[in-house]
Amino acid sequence: MRPDDTNRIRHMIEAAETARQFVAGRQKRDLDSDRMLLFALVRAVEIIGEAATRISPETRALAAAVPWALITAMRNRLVHAYFDIDHGILWKTVTEELPPLVLLLRKALPED
Hints:
Elements: H1 3-23, H2 30-33, H3 35-53, H4 57-62, H5 68-80, H6 87-108
Helix pairs in contact: 1-3, 1-6, 3-5, 3-6
């Protein structure tokens, strides 16, 4: 695996774990009243998606279980339709979809 791909996967893991920390003890309805939480989650998911867009085709093939296209599509939606973010989808992404994604990304990392 290319060193830059390894770094990007680590960035994805870090952003996902940070997003999970942001929602600890929180409820989905908090997104309606806490703009800072909303912005923080959007930014974390954007980082995950941006890093994913830069992963080489070779690494994507090696980690085929990672839903690369869905990750980049989510990033594109957040960046280009920032004015129309569905809080429910964002909440589900962070609370339900990021934990298994982190496991897949950790498996994709080369052993040290």
